[in-house]
Amino acid sequence: MTKVPQQSQKSKVWYKEPWPWLLMAGPVIVVFAAIYTFYLAKSNSADLVSDDYYKDGKHIDLQLHRDEEAFKRNIHAQVLINPDKNAAKVLVNGNFNPQEPLNLVLMHPAKKADDQTVKLQPAQGGALSGDKAEYNAVFKPLPATHHWYVRVEDAGGKWRVEDKWLVSQGNAVNLKPMEKLLSASAAQ
Q: What parts of the sequence cross the membrane (predicted)?
């Protein structure tokens, strides 16, 4: 008689098999990717949505009044930003009191944390450059972005001139009263 060898089938414990680990790897990777995506969304959030849009809407008339006042006073400004984007020379002309304090407001298009409001300092004791009052401003270096919103306003909140500054088109921006007001007054 010949002996037939018995095949001993010892089964391995499940955690020593490669297949369960391979099958669990997919869901584990998805969980870590979701956590990382949440972290990215939280740390790079944009401030495009107002917390209180109703309150902002109530103040829109006040803001338009400031633009109308700048139009009535024929106030224009030119902002010349240095290449390092940490200082500017501001030239303002029109019917305003050069002795009143003025502000330069630099607004990032998406991140409110990068916005800056700087008090303008009269250049050389308030010297005039032609019919324009000359001011200097020093501020924190501006983070890189495609464009900024630039505003010059009086500290009392009576008037303002503003415009969008496209960084790729140079470091000078001309601020004038809103175009809508110009066209509306021409129609009257």
A: 21-41
The pLDDT value recorded for residue 131 is 80
Distance CA(171)–CA(177), nearest Å, equals 20
pTM, two decimals, is 0.67
Q: Are 76 and 160 in contact (CB under 8 A)?
A: no
Class level of CATH domain 54-187: mainly beta
How high is the pLDDT of residue 65?
85
pLDDT(34) > 90: yes
> What is the average pLDDT across 86-101?
90
Gap between the Cα atoms of 65 and 67, Å rounded: 5
Between 60-72 and 179-187, two packed helices, what is the crossing angle to 10 degrees?
A: 70
Pick from 104, 80, 86, 77: nearest CA to 144: 86
Name every residue whose Cβ is closer than 8 Å to that of residue 85 and which is 6 or more positions away in sequence.
141, 142, 171
Residue linked to tokens 């501020």: 139
**Structure-token pair, residue 78:** 């030119």
